[in-house]
Specification:
By secondary structure, the protein is mainly alpha-helical. The protein has one domain. It has helices spanning 3-29, 32-41, 47-65, 69-88, 103-118, 125-130, 133-136. Helix 1 (3-29) crosses helix 5, helix 3 packs across helix 4 and helix 4 (69-88) runs antiparallel to helix 5 (103-118). The chain starts with a helix and ends with a helix.
């Protein structure tokens, strides 16, 4: 693959992973029970808050390290689609003055789709541990 493309995918992987990791960390630090209650208030089962926060936290770290990049990117994409359609769509693309819009979620969805389709092997644990010996040399 083109070296410049690989560098771009590496940057995308690290930024996406960092963004989700921090969002997951904040959910746990701020009280995951509060997030579960907020989910319940929107008609979403509260236990899903634990799943989302865990995927964000653990998946974010895995994404940064380049472990399971494509699978984690698909999970991130699912979370972003759910966030757009359950919470943000009614506010519009840029928001409605009371709530921000779904522009950030759409960008994170696009980055997730990019990494789900292409992967990112440069400086990844996948490359280090799961590549054939002939590719490592």
């Amino acid at each position: 693959m083109n070296k410049n493309l690989e560098i771009g995918l590496l940057i995308s992987r690290i930024i996406l992973g960092l963004s989700f990791f921090i969002h997951g960390l904040v959910k746990f630090q701020g009280g995951i029970g509060n997030i579960a209650g907020w989910f319940d208030s929107m008609g979403i089962p509260g236990f899903l808050a634990y799943a989302v926060a865990t995927i964000e936290l653990v998946g974010g770290l895995a994404m940064i390290l380049g472990l399971g990049t494509r699978i984690v990117a698909v999970l991130f994409g699912i979370i972003m689609i759910a966030a757009i359609f359950t919470v943000k769509l009614s506010a519009g693309f840029l928001g409605n003055g009371q709530m921000v819009g779904y522009e950030l979620e759409l960008i994170l969805l696009a980055l997730s789709a990019l990494l789900a389709l292409s992967g990112s092997r440069l400086y990844s644990l996948e490359q280090l541990f799961f590549s054939p010996r002939s590719q490592k040399a």
